Known about the structure:
The structure holds two protein chains of two kinds. Chain A has a single domain (20-302), classed as Ammonium transporter fold (Orthogonal Bundle), CATH 1.10.3430. Chain A is built from 14 helices and no strands. Chain A has helices spanning 20-42, 44-67, 78-88, 96-112, 124-135, 137-140, 156-162, 170-175, 189-201, 208-223, 228-236, 240-247, 258-278, 285-302. Chain B is α/β, with parallel strands linked by helices. Chain B has two domains: 1-28 and 113-359, NADH-ubiquinone oxidoreductase 51kDa subunit (Rossmann fold), CATH 3.40.50; 371-439, no CATH class. Chain B is built from 13 helices and 18 strands. The longest helix of chain B is centred in the C-terminal third of the chain and has 19 residues, at 421-439. The N and C termini of chain B lie far apart (51 Å). Chains A and B meet through α1 of A and β16, β17, α12 and α13 of B. The complex binds iron/sulfur cluster (2 copies).
Amino acid sequence: MSERLLTVSSSPHARGKQTTKSIMTDVIIALLPATAVGFYVFGLKAVILVVTGIATCVLTELCCEKIMHRDVTIGDMSAALTGLLLALNVPVNCPWWVLMIGCVFAIVMVKQIFGGLGCNFANPALAARVLLVASWPSHMTGKAFIPVDAVVSATPLAIIKEGGDAIPSALQMFLGFDGVYGCIGEISAAALILGFIYLLYKKVISWRIPVTYVATVAVLSFCFGLSAYEVLIQVLAGGLMLGAIFMATDYVTSPATAKAQFIYAFGCGLMTVLIRQKGGYPEGVSFSILFMNFVTPLLDKYLRITKYGEVKK
Amino acid sequence: MEIKKGTFKKGIHPSYNKHYTSSLPIEIMPSPKEVAIPMSMHTGAPATPVVEVGQYVHLGELIGQAAGYISANIHASVSGTVKAIEPRLMGNGSKVSCVVIENDFQDAPCENVEKYDPETVSPEDIVKIIQNAGIVGEGGATFPTSVKLSPGPDAKIDYVIINGAECEPYLTSDHALMREQAAKVAGGLHLAMKVFGLDKGYIGIEDNKPDAIEAFKALNDDSIIVYELETKYPQGSEKHLISAIAGREVPSGGLPAQAGCIVINAGTAAAIYDAVTEGKPLYERVVTVTGSGIKQPKVLLFRIGTNVNEIIEYCGGLTDDIAKVILGGPMMGPAVYDPNVPAGKGTSGILCLNRADAHIEDPSNCIRCAKCTEVCPMGLMPMYLGAFSQKRNFEKCDEYNALDCIECGCCAFTCPARRPLVAEIRVAKRGVQALRKKRG
Ligand code: SF4
Ligand code: SF4
């Protein structure tokens, strides 16, 4: 019997069902409804962008890891997720090469240089989006959102801020099927919330960050004197749902403890409302989350949890 | 008899896999031709052998004398001739001096065995009997029970709790014992209550063992309060059992007695009762032999010092796709290279896993999902402990309370990146201890 080779490893010898790959795959699945609405509304162009985004990220990761002699991790689906997220975060008229630059930046400069998954200082897709908005504003904002044959000519938040066309109805905004424009993946709050429910069901994320973030935006917008209807638009538009559910909850760049998560999400909400109401920019979700990403290490450092048996002072 | 409910914060719900053995009765394994009885099967100093090679020993005769206060007596588990006293390999990889006895299959009893009436025995005698009988915690920590029952004159004990949670997946030893010998376990509890002059005692059982709970109910004993605990790992951890039943927390770095609680494993309680009423020292115990890698899973009563290989053979042997043999449960038990080691007082399980169940997976980068932090029942942040341990930054490990870790494995179980968190934290603990020593 002793000639049989037994494996020895540290306890525990039982493992949970979730793996990095299953989590990343679940997030991709959760994004599918929003992706589908994007395809339906924006057509072939959107399909091409999404495929380009995913392919570029995966290939870039593969090349990086080959060059740096690291283990190839494209099988963990995280690169594919970054590609999908970034593609869903650009307007339909964004040229494919702009998206590709964003993907390469996300994988190389934000993720791989710092040591790969888990070591990045900011959410790769988010940082790339902010870079693209800053570098090619004409391709990333304003008219870029609007398909050529559309009747309206601006995104809902831009309409509120600058006047002009009629704001779409709240139901239109919620479903996102007609007359609502924005980034490919952000137009249907309903589809995004469906994804949120799936993530909760699969225990991939907790409700804390998305709910706190959205609630903060709603309450603060109201405090800024917006009408109930306008508050609703604030919540449904401008990528808030996409950001709150899929970007702000990125594990690597959000805090670890419940307490810190609440503060982080509140910070995201506060920043978003300030940028929207006081800044010169109608959206603000990306900048806010990116900013709070940088605050995360501090929150984690100072907001620990109470351990068992702590001597109460 | 009163039934109450309880649980603790955090923790996990692993697959319990108790079905292999949960309905099996305790089977008595015939005593083996030879036993190798280790002189160290307990926390504390190894016992000193008090027999010589060639000497005849009776069943239950003292063969190893406790060396110091935190130590335990060791007794012969068969009658026969001492063949050798030599170091042998243990399950944890260390070598320990063993008294090897060749069995004459007579089970020749000792003379002058002292038996007591549980009604009239004095508290002092109870502790002394337990000490003489070499009883240690059978749950796995193997702390000498007599030391546990002597918390010092300052301690005020309000709760004596029998740990029948058996939260480790796969294991059903305590389950079988409680179902079949509830009266004995309750008898042990009464003796422990007597030591502290208490008229109420507690027993905690996870609600996945309804027949064990029924067995205690059937005793109709009003001085025992049964806690039906939510089935959640690690409910059987001493600290978390105390949380669930007494609603108290053991102070960090302290003993249960500081929270006014004494916790005794169900098997240990039965051993206490046997020691007092029959003068029987701890020379046999119940083990669960189970898992996908064993041909006939069994719950066995075996003689201490029986070779694990022989126990495996008795259960039909290992399957061809065997990958791991673990002494204990899957969450905390150590895996062995070679099952050619003696089974001891702390061997609660022999878990054999085939390749599919052994979860041999490579770790990848921590993705900071904080799931480890959400489940850690000690309220630690394993993600940081693991990272600081890797960097050998033991100052930080100390700051993040590495020493509070009970090595329950909830964090590593949950980790989607399969980080070897428990292994890393063990390194951290040693580092922190060295650091503290250096500082003085
Ligand atoms: S850090 Fe220690 S106590 Fe916490 S879950 Fe991990 S092993 Fe258990
Ligand atoms: S569970 Fe694993 S991957 Fe997640 S934070 Fe903890 S160590 Fe990192």
